[in-house]
Amino acid sequence: MSDEGKTVADQVKFACERHFAPVEFVECIDQSDGCGAKLLLTIVSDSFSNVKLLQRHRQVQKTLQEAGFGMDQVHAITIRAWTVEEYNKKRAQS
Q1: With 0-12 CB in 10 A as exposed, 13-18 as middle and 19+ as buried, what is 41?
Q2: Other Cβ atoms closer than 10 A to 94
Q3: What angle do CA 34, 65, 40 make, to 5 degrees?
Q4: CA distance linking residue 2 with residue 15, whole number of Å
Q5: If we measure between CA atoms, which residue out of 36, 25, 39 comes closest to residue 84?
Q6: Suppose 87 and one of 5, 44, 56, 68 were both cysteines; which one would form an S-S bond, judging by CB atoms 3.0 to 4.6 Å apart?
Q7: Contact status, residue 26 vs residue 44, Cβ threshold 8 Å
């Protein structure tokens, strides 16, 4: 699959879908008016079961780094890494 023509947000989403499969939901929103420098990333996967929040964030950051997304492309990222159960609880509360 070629990354040509895809946004940084699309590429980040694809990398997370592959790495954290099976995923219930993945969303990557570019909050920087299209340049991809500031992202809001939500990953819902039971691969986060029994993993502490800090470790989840480290796993995501490592995945993105290994996929080639360094500070030259992504300057800020908000990571929401939840299990399916956590995600469903949050959706029920809103």
Answers
A1: buried
A2: 4
A3: 40
A4: 13
A5: 25
A6: 44
A7: yes
Contact status, residue 43 vs residue 60, Cβ threshold 8 Å: yes
Tokens of 49: 């079961």
Query: Which strands form 25-30's sheet, in the order they lie side by side?
Result: 25-30, 38-44, 76-82
| 46 against 2, higher pLDDT | 46
Task: Determine the pLDDT at residue 4.
Answer: 58
Buried b vs exposed e over 50-82: b needs ≥16 C-beta within 10 Å?
A: eeeeeebeebbeebbeebebeeeebeebebbbb
Q: Is the pTM of this model over 0.85?
A: yes
* Dihedral angle computed from the Cα positions of residues 90, 51, 41 and 64, in that order, rounded to the nearest 10 degrees: -170
Asked whether the predicted pLDDT for residue 40 surpasses 90, the reply is yes
